[in-house]
Amino acid sequence: MTDTTTVPARLDRLPWSRFHTRLVVALGVTWVLDGLEITIAGAIGPRLQESVTLGISAAQLGFAASVYLFGEVLGALFFGRLADRVGRRRLFLVTLLIYLAGSGLTAASLDYWMFIGFRFIAGFGIGGEYAAINSAIDELIPAKHRGRVDLSINGTYWLGAVIGSLATSLMLDTSLFGVDVGWRLALLIGPLIALFILPLRRALPESPRWLIGAGRVEEAERFVDDIEQQVVSSGATLGPIDPELATRVAVRERVRYRYIARLMLREYPTRTVLGLVLGISQSFLYNAVFFSYTLVLTTFYGVSTSATPQFLFIFAIGNLLGPLLLGRYFDSIGRRPMIAGTYASSGALLILTGWLFEQDLLTAGTQTALWTVIFFIGSAAASSAYLTVSEVFPVAIRAQAIAFFFAIWQLVGGVAAPWIFGSLIGTGDRSALFVGYLIGGVLMIIAGITEWVLGVEAAGRPLEAISSADDGGSRRRSSVVLVRGTGIPPRNTTEHP
Question: Does this model's pTM top 0.90?
């Protein structure tokens, strides 16, 4: 079945409106919650080592972080599949409720095994959020704004980190809360935010791009009609759409895993390699450094557990400002030079800082200052990895592609990193920890080079034009690809997965 529609072109020509703002708030909270969860988990880590709480070791803390990330992986794979089959909107509430339950129950943990079990559930919900929501955001944001908006939303992970660091600085203060009470209260902040967001989620529509891919073109047209009426009523003027910008859509009723694998390996081989390299490097770097940040401060610099949130706050502010201030240049200068530059420069700076740390030339303050500079740049780089994989694959497999890459990133670059660095810190050996920083820096530099060689320039381009562009693999294009121009039918439209 094929349909021709101007829905994608109409979505891309829209000026920024109240709808887009509501969308960003309702869906962007995912990154806030993940940043909040990981920050709180890192901040309360030293407190959980005390005998009056759960009395767990540094290595066990690292393992608990890995369990959370493993839950994210499984959640992304499971809900990514559902998001492409049944739509984005149906999962908005389900994944948020799963997170709410898991995080809330973690606060009631009585022992280590309960703690890691509930952390897994919370991670499962957040992982599902990533797959469905990354897809919906990119499919609804106009092309001219997509880069900066996507990076800014991903960057709000660090808004969650700021909230987490401020909250834990109060809740870990034993003059205000008991030793075994404050950390539990901190874990309830995320569920409270989720409860506030639930009504906003219920008001959001389905992605029009997903609807037209599912053959529900009239429904998609009605939704865009409504958005355009809102924009016009606010005083904006919308000109006519050029018929040549119409899109012919070849609809699949079902996409099998075998087909997805073939699409990535044969139709988009260089994009697959690019996505893997960008994501694995940033995942290893962030999960290694951020999960173990407070342990470095307490182990090597003698910072008290009640003071670590103050250092986390400074670090998080740098990470938050990076995508917000640099994001505009990913649209104006372009994806390729900005992604390559941010990856390579942050990797080089990390290696330099790691050497200074090994030589014992830093204090807790200067270590934090240097890491803040590194991750001001690195945060924009990490956000661009999510932007890349959500832009370069067709709508029919977008959520599953995001889930696939997210799973590989976390399994290869993320799940083991907190446990490895927790173990290295436990040795008290600066040289051993420097090796870990060196590996992270080299991976980031390699990723920057890979982007320069294989990067896809997507700035300002419609998603349909990006996904239908040749990748250097097979010259065929499957029928799930949206082809720009009504005179160009999808290649190989009779093929079925």
Answer: no
